[in-house]
Amino acid sequence: MGYDIDRFVGYVNEGLLCSICRDVLEDPLQAPCEHAFCTACIHGWLVHHSNCPEDRQMIDVALLRPLYRYMKNDLNRLQLHCKNREYGCEMVCSLESIDRHERECEYSQIPCSNAGCTVQIERRNLDGHLAVCEYRSRECPNGCGYTILSAEDTQHNCVAELRTELELLRSEMICRVEEAKHEMESRLDSQRRHMVQKESILQNEIEELKSQMSRLMSDVRSLMAAERQHRQELEQAELEKREL
Predict the structure, then answer these.
(1) Where, if anywhere, are coiled coils annotated (predicted)?
(2) CATH number of the domain at 5-104, out of 3.30.40.10, 1.20.58.760, 3.40.50.2000, 3.40.630.30?
(3) pTM (2 decimals)?
(4) Where are the domains of the chain?
């Protein structure tokens, strides 16, 4: 939809009116046949039609182009009243700058910034409303440190609120202690399994060393027995030599 033509000061050229809504062009596009439309209007029209609403020539979204520069300049120079005129704003400015003005206009209706409040208030009166809004928040005057809404003043109980927070903190602390306990048990269990595995490996190594020691002792005894046998044979040979 375009800008309401009744908001404009003075004469508005027919070529600057949307061929669909008949208001002054807003975010305009132009067809190859040179008829101009508001972007929203022509897009909505082409959902159900495939021709120009003025001369019925075939058009497609891909064929739409921005308005000619000279027409765009003429459009931007048009003077119009602020949309908040009914609330008291007397500003008249060019179409090119109207959006910027209306975003900052003191007569614009804006929502209260307090959560839960549904009041729409003029921007110029917002500070006054915030000072008395029943949804405004402030710190508890009794010193408990809680932020409360004015509407909850009669229901606020410092002791109950602090007790609730203490219970929450206690529950959170218990959960953290349990988590730390489980984590420590898990680590100890892991270390215990590792130690058991290592002990088993060491035990196997000890048994293997014992086996090697046993074989070594057996070899030593065999060598000692062979040495005694050899000595006896030498002694016998010596006796025979003497006899001869």
Answers:
(1) 192-243
(2) 3.30.40.10
(3) 0.52
(4) 5-104, 109-149
* Rounded Cα–Cα distance for residues 161 and 169 (Å): 12
Q: What is the pLDDT along the chain (244 residues), one digit of tens a residue?
A: 899 999 999 899 999 999 899 999 999 999 999 999 999 999 999 999 999 999 999 988 999 999 999 999 999 999 999 999 998 999 999 999 999 999 999 999 989 888 788 888 889 988 888 888 877 766 665 656 566 555 555 565 666 777 777 888 888 999 999 999 999 998 988 889 889 898 889 999 999 998 899 889 988 888 898 888 888 888 888 888 888 7
CA distance 21 to 43: 12
Paired tokens of 36 = 């101009």
19 closest CA partner among 43, 4, 41? 41
